[in-house]
Amino acid sequence: MMTNLFSVFDPSTSVYSLSLNWISTLLGLMIIPSTFWLIPSRNFIMWNSILNTLHKEFKTLIGYKNINKGSTFIFISLFSIIMFNNFLGLFPYIFTSTSHMTMTLSLALPLWLTFMVFGWINNTQHMFAHLVPQGTPPILMPFMVCIETISNMIRPGTLAVRLAANMIAGHLLLTLLGNTGPSLTSSLLSLLLITQIALLMLESAVAIIQSYVFAVLSTLYSSEVN
């Protein structure tokens, strides 16, 4: 039963051992026409306002006063690709790449490694100071160094697991409710339909929130190395 339940997350299309399901990750680059970016429209204005809001938010988190959009572009791009793939997975028969640790860890680990290498090379004294919080008693300093080191090392794992687990949980619940449909009466079937619509709206909110959380935490991690 558990194998059949989790099989909804398995890539099912492959050619010469290459899974074609992962191509859906870049589907947004193919379905968005070039006129979307060139001709001002309602969608363009809405998306541009979202990007400006994210830029102001990430600018505040990074902590620089005079910062251009290029410095926050990587986090805005991270938010965009995660949100798009989260929403894409809500459609029937479309592979959810963000429910796999392969995808989420591939996003979190390189970012974390880059921040760590940059921080330890350019701001070594600042990075050492982060290992001992201000006001720590001298007797607890060795323990705080171990705790802070472990806390720092598990950051990419927590980023990846948080995103994948939230995507898996919602999709499993939708799958469980959908599998009970054929065995229900007509009166209960209407109740099930209302429940699934409400759950789908909740999953849409989760798709936005989790992409925002991933981008914000990545921004906070980058601000700590400066």
Alpha-carbon Rg, integer:
21 Å
Helix content: over 70%
Q: Count of helical segments?
A: 10
Biggest sheet, in brief?
2 strands, antiparallel
Q: What is the residue-mean pLDDT, rounded to a whole number? A: 80
SS class: mainly alpha
Low-confidence stretches: none
Distance between the termini: 50 Å
Strand content: under 5%
SSE pattern, N- to C-terminal: HEEHHHHHHHHH
Could you give the order of strands across the largest sheet? 1-2
| Number of domain modules | 1
Which shape, going by the Cα principal axes?
globular
Strand elements, count:
2
What can you tell me about this protein's structure?
The protein has 226 residues and is mainly alpha-helical. It has one domain. Helix content is 71%, strand content 2%. The protein has a two-stranded antiparallel ribbon with strand order 1-2. A hairpin with a 2-residue loop joins strand 1 and strand 2. The longest helix has 39 residues. The model has no long low-confidence stretch (mean pLDDT 80). F-type ATPases have 2 components, CF(1) - the catalytic core - and CF(0) - the membrane proton channel. CF(1) has five subunits: alpha(3), beta(3), gamma(1), delta(1), epsilon(1). CF(0) has three main subunits: a, b and c. Its main location: mitochondrion. It holds the Pfam family ATP-synt_A.
Give the gist of this structure.
With 226 residues, the chain is an all-alpha fold. The chain is built from ten helices and two strands; from the N terminus they run αββααααααααα. A hairpin with a 2-residue loop joins strand 1 and strand 2 (18-19).
